[in-house]
Structures are given as structure tokens and as C-alpha cells.
Design goal:
With 420 residues, the protein is mainly alpha-helical. The chain has helices at residues 8-18, 23-30, 34-42, 50-60, 64-68, 82-89, 101-116, 120-137, 140-156, 160-174, 178-194, 198-212, 257-276, 280-295, 310-323, 327-337, 348-364, 368-381, 383-387, 390-400, 409-415. The chain has three domains: 3-68, Orthogonal Bundle (434 Repressor (Amino-terminal Domain)), CATH 1.10.260.40; 90-358, Serine Threonine Protein Phosphatase 5, Tetratricopeptide repeat; 359-420, no CATH class. Helices cover 63% and strands 0% of the residues. InterPro entries: Cro/C1-type_HTH, Lambda_DNA-bd_dom_sf.
């Protein structure tokens, strides 16, 4: 089924879920009944007035053409070329002459750096060729990485369905390799969360984390090596995963610290999924568990490109707070996090994405100037995060509606093709 074939009511429902709104919340903002929203989403009531569609689009922060299933015009700064990635994912014929493995590894490494520096336009152009090459090389490790990069970019560009396809391909290629499967599960969880499928994301993320983390990282097994979280953590390991563990026999296996970083990332993604399900207590427990894993990492080679560590945990805590509606706590945590030394070491993509989330938190508390500062800071760190992502565009639109618009936002609105 193409986008044009999807009933308008289902598109309304999909965007409502993406905006983390219940039917009652949408009804309240439209000043209509919950029953009216339910009938629209089920197709029991026809949306045949453009003025009503415009009103819905305004509340859902999308263009009316999106709800109508019509082709959107591409605003300035938006990355195009996704069709080339779609075509590469649709290929089932194997290229006859893939590059040597060393050359492919170099290309994959370059693609990761391009993503982490938020050069999304460049990455869109690189990915079709990289996918074709990786699909012909039969290197599971490199193909999983190529699919993960692709999925991460597609989720950024609001192509979550296609992102999920790429993540699912990564999972299939990983096969029985627990570490590769765990890295692929990160992308699966991200794509499902972007689709509003938080329960499914949680179901995929937690088993994957448990397969790569030692039993001592779970709160039910604290007798092995102490209490994680904000209390006493196990003794730090070195980069080989070695350390003084007292010879305890309750571990699943200490493994490599790179695997622990993958497991910690899975826990953070699971915490965000739990928050999306409304399970705030579980989200806090999962972030505490991830904090314990992070505290046990002295330093590691981030081969799997997770950016996991204590600062990543604090970023997740802020987002969990925002998701449960406590924007004030989210902003307090953000203020503390950006003063930590590790903040500047996070990739530009990571920091830019967080600042967009921070801008949304400022909007929740009615601080338009704070939201504007966060957007301008994000643009200075990772311009494509602000200028290419549909999510950022909706935040800019919300801030730009102020009269007069805060400093810097009018310029951003113009850059992304918005008019006040």
C-alpha cells in the first residue's frame, strides 16, 4: 500500500501517535469530542472539508498535504535522494565485482564519520553505492554496519518505515552472532520508536541487552559485584574487559567493553521506549542500570559507534523526563549535562539532536527564548540536524509563530522554507 492509498483517518492516527498524543489530547486541542477523533481515525466519519484538515494539520504540526497523502514540496535545506536509498534496498541481484574488504571497511568508516558529523546530504548520496557494494561483499559485519547507518539516517529524515526495513535487514544478516545482532537491535528499536511502536521496541531491545551484558549488570543479580546506578559500582575494567571481579561465578561472561557499550545503549533505548509506553518507573530503572554499566567502563574503542557513556546516560535521563511531561526536570538535567567534560566529546549529530529535544522541552514550559537558543545552538553544532529534519522544522515553526519571533529563529525559518 502506497502513501496515497492509506486512508486519511489512518494518517491522522499515525501522526497523532508520532506526536505522543492520546485521542483525548487531540480532541481537546481541536475543541472536539474524543468520539469525533475516534470516528475520523476509524474512517467512520468523512473528512471532506479542507478547513478541518488544515485545523488537524496545524495541531499535528504537519502540512495539510501530508494528511491528504499528496507529494510534499521539498523545503530549502531538506535532504532529497531518499529514492536512491530505497532503490538500493530493493536490489536483490548481487554486484559482480565488490570492492576489496579493506576498501569497503574504509568506505563504511567514512560513512559513519559523515553521519556523526551530521553531513546528511552527503550521506544520502553515498549510501546507495555503499549498500550495493556491501551487499555484494558478503561481510556480515560490514553489511550490518551499512544497514545501521542507513536506518539511522532514514529515521532522522522521518522515513521510519524504510528505516525499519533497513534495521530488519541488519538483524537478518547478523544471524547467530550475538554482538552483531545486538548492534542491529539498536537500529530496530530506534526505528520502531520512531513509528510510535514503543511496546514492540521494548520487546526487541531488552532481550538483546541481556544477551551481551553480564548478569551482574541486572538489579536482580547485585550480589555478584555490588549495586549499580548511583551507588557502588563494580571495579572498573580496562580496555580488554579485564579487572578484579573477585572470581564470582554468577557472571554470564564479562566480555569486551565494546559489547558492554552496545548493551548499555540498548538499555537507554529501552528506557526511552518504556517512557513512550507511559512506564516511567521502568524507564528510570533501565537508565539506572545503564548508568551502572557506564560507570564500569574506564575507556573503550567505540568500534560499534554507540557513543555510550555517562553523558549519554544523562542525555537519556533528560529525554525520559521530557517524555513523561516533566519538562522542568528535563531542562535541569540538560543544564547539568552540557557542563560535563564528556558533552563536547559526543558526536555533533548526537548533540544537535539532543538540543532539538531540549527546544521542545522549552516549548512545554512556554519559554520561547530558551527554545530559540537551543535551536540556534543546534544549528551551530550540526546544521543539518536543524535544516534537514522534519522534526526540527515543526519546532522552528512553533517558535517562529511568536510575535516578534525570538532572535535567530526567523533566519532558521527562512532557511528551512517556512513563512511566518
Amino acid at each position: 500500500m502506497t502513501s496515497d492509498d492509506i486512508p486519511i483517518g489512518r494518517r491522522v492516527a499515525n501522526w497523532r501517535v508520532r506526536r505522543s498524543m492520546t485521542q483525548q489530547m487531540l480532541a481537546d486541542r481541536l475543541r472536539r469530542s474524543k468520539s469525533w477523533v475516534d470516528k475520523i481515525e476509524r474512517g467512520a466519519r468523512t473528512l471532506d472539508r479542507y478547513s478541518v484538515i488544515q485545523e488537524l494539520a496545524h495541531v499535528l504540526r504537519v502540512d495539510p498535504e501530508v494528511l491528504l497523502g499528496q507529494q510534499r514540496s521539498t523545503p530549502a535545506g531538506t535532504t532529497d535522494g531518499v529514492d536512491g536509498i530505497r532503490a538500493a534496498l530493493a536490489r536483490y541481484d548481487i554486484p559482480q565485482a565488490p570492492p576489496p574488504t579493506d576498501e569497503l571497511r574504509r568506505q563504511v568508516g567514512h560513512a559513519w564519520l559523515t553521519y556523526q558529523h551530521a553531513h546528511y546530504g552527503q550521506l544520502v548520496r553515498l549510501l546507495p553505492g555503499l549498500l550495493n557494494a556491501a551487499q555484494g561483499a558478503w561481510s556480515a559485519e560490514l553489511l550490518v554496519q551499512a544497514y545501521r547507518i542507513t536506518s539511522s539516517l532514514l529515521v532522522k529524515l522521518d522515513e521510519a518505515d524504510l528505516g525499519w526495513l533497513s534495521a530488519d535487514r541488519a538483524m537478518a544478516v547478523a544471524g547467530g552472532d550475538p554482538v552483531l545482532a545486538a548492534t542491529a537491535a539498536i537500529s530496530v528499536g530506534q526505528a520502531l520508536r520512531a513509528q510510535g511502536q514503543d511496546h514492540l521496541a521494548l520487546a526487541a531491545l531488552l532481550p538483546a541487552a541481556d544477551r551481551v551484558l553480564p548478569l551482574s549488570s541486572h538489579p536482580d543479580d547485585q550480589e555478584v559485584s555490588g549495586t549499580f546506578g548511583d551507588q557502588t559500582a563494580p571495579k572498573p575494567l580496562d580496555h580488554r574487559g579485564e579487572g578484579d571481579h573477585g572470581g564470582g561465578g554468577g557472571h554470564r561472561g564479562q566480555g569486551d567493553l565494546r559489547e558492554w557499550a552496545v548493551g548499555g545503549t540498548l538499555l537507554l533505548q529501552a528506557a526511552l521506549a518504556a517512557a513512550g509506553c507511559g512506564e516511567s518507573r521502568r524507564a528510570d530503572e533501565l537508565t539506572d542500570r545503564a548508568a551502572g554499566v557506564a560507570a564500569n567502563l574506564r575507556g573503550y574503542d567505540d568500534q560499534h559507534h554507540t557513543s555510550f557513556g555517562p553523558v549519554a546516560v544523562e542525555v537519556a535521563r533528560a529525554l525520559v523526563a521530557a517524555q513523561r511531561g516533566d519538562a522542568a526536570e528535563a531542562l535541569r538535567r540538560h543544564s547539568t549535562t552540557v557542563r560535563r567534560e564528556g558533552w563536547q566529546r559526543l558526536p555533533a549529530e548526537y548533540r544537535g539532536a539532543h538540543l532539538i529535544d531540549v527546544a521542545r522541552a522549552y516549548l512545554q514550559v512556554g519559554d520561547l527564548r530558551g527554545a530559540a537558543r537551543a535551536l540556534v545552538d543546534a544549528d551551530s553544532i550540526a546544521p543539518a540536524e536543524v535544516r534537514c529534519r522534519p522534526l526540527a522544522r515543526t519546532v522552528i515553526a512553533d517558535v517562529a509563530r511568536a510575535q516578534p519571533a525570538p532572535a535567530g529563529v526567523a533566519r532558521l525559518a527562512t532557511l528551512v522554507g517556512l513563512t511566518r
